[in-house]
Amino acid sequence: MLQALGLGPAEEAVYTALLAHPTASVRDLARQTGLEKAETTRILLDMTTRGLVTVATEARSGAPDSAGCGDARYRLTPPSVALAPILVEQRNALHRAETAFSMLTEQYRSTAAHPAGSVVEVVVGVEQVAHRFHQLQRGAQRELLVFLVGAPIAVPREDTDMSESSALDRGVDFRVVADRTYLDGHEVAGDMRAALNAGLGLRLTDSLPLKMVVSDRERAMVPLDMTDAGGEPSAIVVHRSGLLTALVHLFEKEWAEARPLYATTTGVRAQPTTDQQPTEGELEVLALLLAGVSDRRAASRLGLSIRTVERRTRRLMDLAGADSRLQLGWHAARAGWL
């Protein structure tokens, strides 16, 4: 662990050995660490120069034992004194690196803000489109917004499933609006059911204007008509701009109007357009919460993440119009949810 503070493995071994003893000689430390006496001596002299170690008892000659055969003994300088300056310097170096990174990023954005190519990037070809798609999904840290329409072209369904699973495992807020044709045209009910149980937010609508994926509201990818690229799959990658803001607004509008899907024992089912009811998964969470089980224990019992339990609880409160879990329990009893 001391390598992070600039000590090599051999130096860390000597330092750790000294931690266990108030003082120790070269011979003692060589025996404890398995290092040669000459190597141990070199390390001790270097650490003494750096202020990490002091000479507790000098050899008979009155000088530190440089041969490793005398009776000079060494002890550690208190870590709070010796290591604190190293830690401060590393923190300062990290701060300088972060400042340089921010400056370079802003410089790049300001330089690239003028040409149109910096806002909209055209990607052509199956491999290139698939590569950028995975970059967006795997690089997301906070949020993914997706429109699903029609049959997959550049990215196979199984590859999309892997990217979804990775994002959900990282705790990314993952919301999808699916065109009805997407579910009708493919055997995806089982995959969708697993994704819903893992925390995916999924809603269904009769039609969508385009396919799309938005990553952290910083980049979006929209497929183009294949005829525009001579028959090859192609897409545009949209960076932060007014156009990206419009795409995010479009998603939120479609999400608000779409019908939530919930998992059943055989697949997925859309909620009715009126009189929305909790899903089976949400009712499982509700039952445990009303029994006094904490979110963490509920997640463990149901095999879900805490984030998923919190998301289902939040939606239950939205359905009930409740501001607290006490109000949620009252509404659940009154509405006959349990």
Would you give an account of this structure?
By secondary structure, the protein is of the alpha+beta class. Helices cover 49% and strands 17% of the residues. It has helices spanning 9-19, 26-33, 37-49, 79-82, 84-112, 126-139, 157-169, 180-184, 189-197, 242-257, 280-290, 295-302, 306-320, 325-335, and strands at 24-25, 53-57, 73-76, 120-124, 143-148, 173-179, 201-205, 212-215, 219-223, 234-239, 259-263, 268-270. A 9-stranded mixed beta sheet has the order 4-10-9-8-5-6-7-11-12, with helices on both faces. It has a 3-stranded antiparallel beta sheet with strand order 1-3-2. Helix 7 links the parallel strand 5 and strand 6 (173-179). The two termini are 52 Å apart. Residues 59-69 have low confidence and may be disordered.
Strand order of the largest sheet: 4-10-9-8-5-6-7-11-12
Query: What distance lies between the first and last C-alpha atoms, to the nearest angstrom?
Result: 52 Å
Major sheet details:
9 strands, mixed
Averaged pLDDT: 79
Radius of gyration: 31 Å
The count of DSSP E runs of length 2 or more, i.e. the number of strands, is: 12
Number of helical segments? Answer: 14
User: Helical residue percent?
Assistant: 40-55%
As a percent range, the share of strand residues is 15-25%
State the low-pLDDT regions, or none.
Answer: 59-69
Given the helix and strand composition, which structural class is it?
alpha+beta
Order of helices and strands: HEHHEEHHEHEHEHHEEEEHEEHHHH
Global morphology:
elongated
